[in-house]
Design brief:
This protein is α/β, with parallel strands linked by helices. The chain has 2 domains: 40-69; 80-228, no CATH class. Helix content is 32%, strand content 11%. It has helices at residues 30-37, 43-68, 71-74, 78-81, 131-139, 153-163, 198-207, 224-228; strands spanning 87-88, 121-124, 143-147, 169-173, 181-185, 188-192. A hairpin with a 2-residue loop joins strand 5 and strand 6. The N and C termini lie far apart (149 Å).
């Protein structure tokens, strides 16, 4: 007689602990482990670091601009060109020439000139000096304030306060002016009627020792011998 076969669902060997019904070890829950072990991105720290770096770069850039721009200054002449009523002359020659020179402007604003410059160490000349020496001083970056002879004392005093004790500027009476006051820098001229005109201060600030507009930037403004014995119109000092 044939023996009955054992049922596949019958009392076979029991699976070991931790094994599935088939006797195989179940797959680990990898995804759940990744979620547990994944680090959170520190966005707060990153944003703070970016902000600090940006601020540092801005501070460094500002310092470099300030240190490199001496009359960033030498920022050019755009500010001077914007002064109402100012005149700008270009293409000026600048050779050293002996003798009297004829200039197209009065007072002149540049051009050929005497080899000797006029002292411009805040000098208050009591009388008019020779144009040829004055123009040489403009070449060094100075501002020249000329005023009409007979100008009211109060106005002369106001101009004196702008000049006295300051380098690269001088003032003098000047015959034949059509306005009370005329200001000159190399290539620039501004005429005003009053010493209280705010454009005077703007002219001085924008053009005195303006590196972009000074043919001989860094040249001396002092000339003690000229200051002691200045030239006169028609008699420039050549040596």
């Amino acid at each position: 007689m044939t023996k009955p076969t054992k049922s596949s669902s019958g009392g076979g060997k029991k699976p070991a602990a931790g094994q599935g019904p088939t006797g195989k070890t179940p797959a680990k829950k990898v995804q759940s482990r990744k979620i547990v072990n994944k680090r959170q991105t520190p966005w707060g720290l990153i944003v703070t670091t970016v902000v600090i770096v940006a601020l540092a770069a801005g501070i460094i850039g500002y310092a470099v601009t300030r240190n490199s721009g001496k009359s960033d200054t030498a920022s050019g002449t755009a500010a001077a060109d914007a002064i109402p009523g100012i005149k700008h002359y270009t293409g000026l020659t600048r050779n050293h020439v002996s003798g009297v020179i004829s200039y197209p402007q009065s007072p002149p604003v540049g051009g050929n000139h005497a080899p000797v410059w006029a002292d411009c160490s805040g000098t208050i000349y009591p009388a008019q000096i020779a144009n040829e020496n004055a123009v040489h001083t403009l070449e060094h970056g100075a501002v020249w304030i000329a005023y009409k002879p007979g100008l009211a004392t109060a106005q002369i005093d106001a101009l004196t306060k702008l000049v006295a004790g300051n380098q690269y500027i001088w003032m003098e009476p000047y015959a034949g002016l059509t306005s009370n006051i005329s200001l000159q820098a190399w290539g620039y001229q501004l005429t005003v009627d009053s010493a209280s005109d705010p454009r005077i201060a703007d002219f001085i600030k924008d053009l005195k020792l303006n590196q972009a507009n000074t043919p001989e930037f860094g040249a001396s403004c002092d000339n003690a011998s000229f200051k002691t014995k200045p030239s006169t119109p028609g008699h420039p000092i050549d040596s």
